[in-house]
Design a protein that fits this description.
mainly alpha; globular; Arc Repressor Mutant, subunit A; 10 helices
Amino acid sequence: MAGNRLPAGTLSLMNPEEPHTGHAESPRLIYRMLYVEEARLPALLGRKRLPDGFRQLNPQDDGQVAAGLLRLASEFERSDALVLESELLALLELVFIRHGGLRAARPASRDGGVTLQVRDYLEAHYADAISLEQLADLVQRHPRHLIDAFRRAYGVPPHTYLLQRRVREAKRLLLGDQSPLTVALSLGFYDQAHFSGTFKRFTGVTPGQFRRAAQA
C-alpha cells in the first residue's frame, strides 16, 4: 500500500479501522500521535453521537490543530491534570468541528451559582492537584459546559484562572525569603522551569526578575 508523505508540521487524521503501519518513513523523523478510543469520544465531547469519520485525512492547511497537538504532547510530562484535560477537550472539539462536520455547540449560560462554586473551590485549593473531572463532579456538569460557562462568567477557563491564582500567590511569597524552587513546589508546579515559564507568561518577567525589581 502506498503511503502518504506529509511535510513537517502538518496534521494527519485517522478514522476507525483505517489501516496504517504506525511507523515513520525514516528513523530520523519524529511524529506525535494522539489516540482516543472511539467509544469514549461522544461522552468526552458531550454529544450523543459524532459524525462517522473525518472528511479529509490529510488536511495540509491546518497548522492550527497541528500546533495544538504538538503543544499538548510537549506538556504531558509536566502540566497538571486540569490544564491537560481542558486543552485536550478543546483540541478534540476543534478537530471534529473543522474536519469531522461537527456543529459547534451552543454557548453555555453563565450558570452563576455553579461557576461561583467552582471559583471558590479554585481559590481555596489553588495549590492542590485538581482535575477537570473532579470539578465537573463537584457541580454535576459536563466538563465542556463547565469550561464554557466559567469562561463566560470570568473571561478565562478554569485552568487559566487556577494558574493566575497561583501566580498571584507566588508574587506574595517571592517578596519573602523563600527560594523560587520552594515557591514553585508549594504552589503545585511540577518544577522550577514549569513555574518560571508560567510566571513569565502572566507577568512578562521571570520570578527572579520580579524579586529583584521588588527589592530594588
